[in-house]
Amino acid sequence: MTESGKRFEKATGYIASQSARAKKKPEGRDVLEPAITISRQTGAGAVTLAGGLAEYLNKETGVKEDAWEVFDKTLTRQVLDDHNLPTRVERYMTEDSPKPVKDALGDMLGLHPPNWELVKHTGETIYRLAKKGRCILVGRGANIITRDLTNVFHLRLIGSLEQRVIRCQDYYGIDQAEAVELIRKQDRARRRYLLAYYDIEIDDPTNYHLVINVDRYTAQALVRFVGDMVLKWSVGFDS
User: Fold this and answer.
1) Do 95 and 190 contact (CB within 8 A), yes or no?
2) For the residues of 79-127, what is the DSSP string, one character each?
3) How is the chain split into domains, by residue range?
4) How far apart are the C-alpha atoms of 177 and 168, rounded to whole Å?
5) What's the confidence (pLDDT) of residue 118?
6) For residue 14, what are the β-bridge partners?
7) What residues have CB less than 8 Å from 181, skipping those under 6 apart?
8) SS3 for 76?
9) How many Å apart are CA 112 and CA 80, to the nearest integer?
10) Is the dihedral of CA 55, 131, 232, 221 positive or negative?
11) Residue 232's CB: how many other CB atoms inside 10 A?
12) Rounded CA gap, 239 and 144, in Å?
């Protein structure tokens, strides 16, 4: 099984365990569990932070079952599963807004549903996961989709271009010029995605609880800082 497949299998297990936990809630009592959304500049280390954060939160809360889970690349697989879509559609679920002609052509040829429909399905899955709690949702406008949920903490990661280039070089094994081009391409795409589908500017700090310059932290220190903040912030959710 591929690494992606293993991660999706783990995420599927999370869904099953969270559903079972929901059924055990005391009758007449709404028990809210925290969730986290992460918006990021390319190369800010969101995937690394999300993985470390899930491990840290599980350890600090003593959770063995119903553990925190990360949905980044596995999110599209979950959307396909939730909405009974064929796996070939996944390639069209990019974090960007396609040109209208290209989108219409793909729809007309039956290659994929209209892009707005895929975004709608993605939003429905994100909202459902966030309501269940104990999940970390990376990208896809998750902070906007869940902004009416009081149990969700919204985080944005930023950093200097210099440091983000270095991270991309290390992570993807590419040279400096390729890293710069990747950062510019993905940052533009994510900005277009938020503007096209939610009419939101991704860099507006009012859309987040916290905006962090990751240049100021080591990876380990960042995990502890965010983890401790979320744990303190989430106190009192049970109501």
Assistant:
1) yes
2) HHHHTT--GGGGGG--SS---HHHHHHHHHTTSSS-HHHHHHHHHHHHH
3) 3-11+32-225
4) 11
5) 87
6) none
7) none
8) helix
9) 12
10) positive
11) 8
12) 24
Query: Which letter does DSSP use for residue 200 in this model?
Result: -
- Please state, in angstroms and rounded to a whole number, the distance separating the CA atoms of residues 15 and 64: 15
Model confidence, pTM: 0.79
Cβ neighbours of residue 28 under 8 Å, at least 6 residues apart?
Answer: none
Q: E-assigned strands of the chain?
A: 35-40, 69-71, 135-138, 152-158, 210-213
Q: Mean pLDDT score of the chain, rounded to an integer?
A: 82
From the CB of residue 46, how many other CB atoms can be counted at a distance below 10 Å?
22
Tell me the mean pLDDT in the region 61-82: 83
Nearest-angstrom CA–CA distance, 217 and 59: 21
Question: What pLDDT sits at residue 111?
Answer: 54
Instruction: Give the Cα-Cα-Cα angle 189, 193, 198 (nearest 5 degrees).
Output: 160
Cα-Cα-Cα-Cα dihedral sign, residues 187, 189, 192, 198:
negative
Half-sphere exposure of 229 (CA within 13 A, CB side): 16
Confidence bin at 61 (pLDDT 50/70/90): confident
pLDDT digits (tens, 9 = 90+) for 163-192: 999 999 999 999 999 999 999 999 999 999
| pLDDT at 10 exceeding the cut of 60 | no
CATH architecture for segment(s) 3-11+32-225: 3-Layer(aba) Sandwich (3.40)
pLDDT tens for 89-139 read: 877 777 776 554 344 444 444 555 677 888 898 999 999 999 999 999 999
Which carries the bigger pLDDT value, residue 34 or residue 84? 34
Closest alpha carbon to 131 in 140, 142, 141:
142
